[in-house]
Amino acid sequence: MSTRHQPTLLIVEDDLSLNRMMSEALQTQGYRVNSATSGSQGLKLLREWQPDILLLDMMLPHFNGLELLRQAVPEYCGIVLMITASDRPQLEEQAFDLGVHDYIQKPLRPHILFAKLKALIRLAQGQATEPELGECYRVQNLKLVPTSRQFFIDDEPVALTAAEFAIAEYLMAKPGVVLARSDIVAALRGIEYDGLDRAIDMRISSLRKKMSDSVPPYKYIKTVRGRGYMLAAG
After folding, report:
1. Fewer CB in a 10 Å sphere around the end CB: N or C, the chain?
2. Which of 69-73, 114-118, 214-218 has the lowest mean pLDDT?
3. Judging by DSSP bridges, how do beta strands 137-139 and 228-231 pair with one another?
4. 3-class SS letters over 41-102
5. Please, are residues 59 and 34 in contact by the beta-carbon 8 Å criterion?
């Protein structure tokens, strides 16, 4: 995402009062905002406008946010922040599998929304700064190439979402080191861990599935009870 233009943001939310409140609040924060109130309208605007950020409600009329993503992901490469009132982990996992970068729970707190958006923009801008040509990480039979955004297991490419790649890169840069959830949240999302946010756990779960390592004892990403996660060095 360019740092030189006013960020564009599309809100897809069927609650009219919430949609209006977010639109007005985000405009005061410097975003150029457009909005839709249904999945079909949101998909049409997303394809036509190609905003930097998609703020997407999970449950929508016509078709839900997950279906919108399924149809939009092949051509949309921006930031996706999911709005949800659901407490069903399987829906959150599906969202991360489809490329959602983060989610925010209803009822929305504006200062948390602003903080999450700023953190996601910083992450996107940081990913645009490439390391030295040819630099890569190798741990066990894993290989990650930051410059080309590629991830391999036994030299076979594995497709990762942007969120999965970010956490894989963070873990592979520190093999054998126990990383606290608070440190991971601060590094990848730029906010303070509140002890309740499960976004990192959902990303780890999604990444383990892509690595065919979703059943304990884990070969790659170890859960260290009461402390956090560790990528096993060997």
Report:
1. C
2. 69-73
3. unpaired
4. HHHHHHHHHCCCEEEEECCCCCCCHHHHHHHHCCCCCCEEEEEECCCCHHHHHHHHHCCCCE
5. no
